[in-house]
Amino acid sequence: MDDLDQQLIARLRQNARTSVAELAQALKVSRGTIANRMARLEREGVITGYTLRLRPDAVRDEVRAWASIAVEGHQQRVVLALLGLPGVSALHDTNGRWDVLAELKVGDLTELSALLERVRAIPGVSATETSLHLKSWRA
């Protein structure tokens, strides 16, 4: 990825609904260049989808949690499996006792329990520790 790709991704992170024309104008390139770049980034799996972000207090009846995950063996396989699980909203590489930190968002505690069971069943996951989000002061 070059500097233009990085700038494009940064703008899409701010607002994934920005039009190709707006992106092209902001980055001072043609619409065709932006469309081609986006298509290539999607094809290469750099961009895996587009999503909606909500203010944390705007969603009612949502359970949010962090799962700290220890991995034995090939971490990339575990990461790919985690990325495919509905309810895993973000995934982070970390240091220390835990190898991966997953942000989880589900509808209720029953869904959280089921999601954690699926996480623990992934080959290579050796341990987990989960903390519930109780309150956010800044998101």
How far apart are the first and last residues' alpha carbons, in Å?
A: 29 Å
Summarize the biggest pleated sheet: 4 strands, antiparallel
Principal-axis shape:
globular
Please identify which CATH superfamily of the largest domain we are dealing with: Lrp/AsnC effector binding domain/regulation of amino acid metabolism (RAM) domain
The radius of gyration computed from the alpha-carbon positions, rounded to a whole number of angstroms, is 18 Å
CATH topology name of the largest domain: Alpha-Beta Plaits
- CATH architecture assignment name of the largest domain: 2-Layer Sandwich
Q: Strand tally, please?
A: 4
Q: What's the mean pLDDT score?
A: 91
Q: Unreliable stretches, pLDDT < 50, 5 or more residues? A: none
Strand order of the largest sheet: 2-3-1-4
Q: What share of the residues lie within helices?
A: 25-40%
CATH class of the largest domain: Alpha Beta
Number of domains: 2
How many helices in DSSP terms?
5
Helix-strand string: HHHEHEEHE
> Approximately how much beta-strand content do the residues carry?
15-25%
What this model shows, in words?
The structure is a single chain. This protein has 139 residues and is α+β, with helices and mostly antiparallel strands. Helix content is 39%, strand content 22%. It folds into two domains: 41 residues, Winged helix-like DNA-binding domain superfamily/Winged helix DNA-binding domain (Arc Repressor Mutant, subunit A, Orthogonal Bundle); 77 residues, Alpha-Beta Plaits. It contains five helices and four strands. Strands 2-3-1-4 form a four-stranded antiparallel β-sheet, with helices on one face. β2 and β3 form a beta hairpin. The longest helix is centred in the N-terminal third of the chain and has 13 residues. It is globular and about 50 Å long. The mean pLDDT is 91.
